């Protein structure tokens, strides 16, 4: 994606709170993402080339929907737990073998999709704890 294409996506996201950069061949956060820290609610980075999710993800505190499907992620950083407003989280079709414990901080999470060994057991525990809290 060229600079003008990214600029247009950023400008639209500033107005709508939605940034969809799927199939963008991204492997890191462009500096322009910083402009969206305060208002981004939906971030779709599916079908890119992320091997590592940058810690900067934790700056997007208004995020409600995060799609990281079809990347090459080997690890989700612990700082993901700072995104307490997340309602949906998708990181299927990556190279994950574990999930960070900080996912338990995501108390508003309604849907989490992952194809990680032990994910089903984790979600059962998470759901049980969430039910006890409310």
TrEMBL record:
This protein's record includes keyword Oxidoreductase: no
Short name of one Pfam family: LRR_1
Keyword tags: Leucine-rich repeat, Repeat
Alphabetized SUPFAM superfamilies for the sequence: L domain-like
Gene3D superfamilies recorded: Ribonuclease Inhibitor
The keyword Repeat appears for this protein: yes
GO cellular component labels: cytoplasm
InterPro entries: Leu-rich_rpt (IPR001611), Leu-rich_rpt_typical-subtyp (IPR003591), LRR_dom_sf (IPR032675), LRR_domain-containing (IPR050216)
Domain of life: Eukaryota
PANTHER family: PTHR48051, RAS SUPPRESSOR PROTEIN 1
Name of the protein in its database record: LRR 8 domain containing protein
Species of the source: Asbolus verrucosus (Desert ironclad beetle)
